[in-house]
Every structure is written in structure tokens, then in C-alpha cells.
Amino acid sequence: MSDNRAAANAKLTRVDKAAILLLSLGESDAAQVLRHMGPKEVQRVGVAMAQMRNVHREQVEQVMSEFVEIVGDQTSLGVGSDSYIRKMLTSALGEDKANGLIDRILLGGNTSGLDSLKWMEPRAVADVIRFEHPQIQAIVVAYLDPDQAGEVLGHFDQKARLDIILRVSSLNTVQPAALKELNQILEKQFSGNSNAARTSLGGIKRAADIMNFLDSSMESQLMDSIRDIDEDLSGQIEDLMFVFNNLADVDDRGIQALLREVSSDVLVLALKGSDENVQEKIFKNMSKRAAELLRDDLEAKGPVRVSDVETAQKEILTIARRMAEAGEIVLGGKGGEEMI
What is the pTM of this model? Predict the structure, then answer.
């Protein structure tokens, strides 16, 4: 039995460990911890909490021991929504305990109208701002995390997407009074207090970050439209975007960490459309046997659709960006000067 439990401990992810820790703390203390976490973190940890079954004493002891050693470390995880988090926490803690916790998380004192949008599904955010002035739409899109912003743009037509991304790229600062007014407009629909402290947002780098999360065909079409309007701007955005071939510039430790998160089928498909530098970077960071098998798989793989290759590359890039946000690897843009 002890061997089985040891094996179970070894399979615990960092998110699982965070979930065990929070479940061990009790409602009040767990709520205080969650208040300092963002929508992405709450969703990932909350899902793990909801899925916890038959946690052994040894697992709890292991998590507590590790926590003491690494206390102070932070993570950056997936994206959540109000309704999903309500259901998830209720499933994890029961309705009575969850109600108070949900109120403190979703309706906390530091939540502004803009921050409330981060808890919503991208389609819902798009519906909220759909009939607002394009400049307001741009401010909202720039304020969201790039992955959520990219999904929000996906719910607009091509003309609106182009207008918004151009405005985001030229946006540098927003007057506190304007930000406060926007918060007040949004707070007519959401609970929370106004917070006008954040006034710097947008810019070419932000536009590039958002473009990174668009669907491949959508990204290509939008970049072509930007190039037609302002070729210099399109070049600046492209220079700051992280694309699949930029993986050749990631350090060996980062590549090794990334490969542990990517399935072999997806990797083979993605490498079919990559340049030689990326392939050699991947081979270099695998065992000799694994590299030989991967080379054989690539050679044996017949013709594949470009859309399938792009989808596989996007999947790997999504994992890479998530790991970069968590501080596990370092990515750079094409120019090699910007770090994300």
C-alpha cells in the first residue's frame, strides 16, 4: 500500500499540490489565499480541488512539507469564468461553504469593472463591448490577458478586429479620469469598486501578444490587412511576435521542459512544417534513442495539410506561453530583445 501511495505522490502536479494545500487549510484561510490569485489561477486550482478524490495522509504530508520549502513561490495558470468557478467551487466544497467563498473571490473589494471582465467567457466580454466606441473596445482588449483578448477578438468580424488591434497598437496611456469613467460604466453591470491606478496599457508589444493567440488563419488575414495599411507597423508587430521557428532561440533547459509537456504525435506534426534549425534544436535536447525515433517518424510521415501543421504548432506555442507566464521557460520575440 505504501508503494502505491508513493507512486500516487509522484504523479501529483503542482496544481494538484496547490489544491490539496487549499483543501487542507479550511474555508476561511483558503478564501484569503484565493483572494490574491487571478482568474487563471483560481480556475486551474479550483478544477483540481473539484477533482480531488481519496487524498491520502501521506500526500497531504508531502504537500505540506514541500510548501514549507518553497513558500513564497507563485504560479500563473489557465483562464476562468464566473459561472464555471461557481459550479466548480460548489462541487468541491458543497453549496453552504462555497457561497461565502465565491462572494469573496468574485466580488472582492479590489474588483473593478474592468477586472470583472477577466472572469467572463470571451464571447460574453465581446457581447458587453460590441456596441461600445472602438476606442473603448481597444482599452478593454488591451486590459485583458492576451490569451483572453485573442479569444474576444475572435468573436468580432474582420473589419472590427482590424480596427481594434490597430487602436491597441497605438495605445500607450489612458487618463485616470477616462479609466474611472469606463469602470463606472461597467460597474453598473458588475459588483466592485473603481480602481483607476492602472493607466499604462496597450502598445505594439501588447498587440503582438494578442496576435499570438489568434487562430492561424485569422492571424494571417489580420496581419495582411495591417500590412496594407501600415507596412512599418506590421513589421514591428511581427518582430515582437513569438512564432514556432523562434523555438530555436529558446535555451536547452527550456526546450527540455517544453518537450515534457508535448505529446509525440503533436510534435511530429508540428516539426513537419518547421525549419531545420528548430528540428535540430529539438533533436539536440532529446536522448539519442528518442531523437532517432523522432527522425524515423518524421521520415515515415506522409504529406500533411498545412492547417494540421499550424494547429499542432499553435498547440505547442500555447503550452510554451503558459510555461513562460509561470516562469518555467523564457521566450523572446523575433528580434530577440523583448522578453515575455
Answer: 0.51
